[in-house]
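Example for tutorial group B:
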C-alpha cells in the first residue's frame, strides 16, 4: 500500500441527498462518507481532482489516504472502501 505524504483537505457536508450531491459534483467536488471505529459516520466532500490523482496512482483504490479536516488540525488515515461511478 502507498501513503500520500501531504494531507488531503476535506470539508464537512451539512446537506445530503441526491440534489445536494449533484450540486457538489457540478462544483468539482466528490461527496463521500467517513466511517470510524468508535465514531459515527461523517459526510464530507473531497476535491475531484485529488480523488482522480489518488485513483490513477500505482496503488489506485488500495491507497492509504491522509486526510485533514478543513478548519481544524484533525488528521487521520483512510482507505477507499467503495467507489461509485456514473
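The residue assignment follows.
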Amino acid at each position: 500500500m502507498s501513503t500520500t505524504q501531504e494531507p488531503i483537505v476535506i470539508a464537512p457536508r451539512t446537506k445530503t441527498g441526491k440534489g445536494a450531491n449533484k450540486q457538489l459534483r457540478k462544483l468539482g467536488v466528490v461527496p463521500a462518507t467517513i466511517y470510524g471505529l468508535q465514531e459515527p459516520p461523517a459526510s464530507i466532500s473531497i476535491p475531484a481532482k485529488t480523488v482522480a490523482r489518488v485513483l490513477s496512482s500505482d496503488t489506485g483504490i488500495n491507497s492509504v489516504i491522509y486526510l485533514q479536516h478543513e478548519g481544524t488540525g484533525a488528521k487521520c488515515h483512510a482507505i477507499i472502501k467503495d467507489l461509485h461511478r456514473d
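The first helix runs from residue 18 to 26. Compare this with the pattern of hydrophobic and polar residues in the output above.
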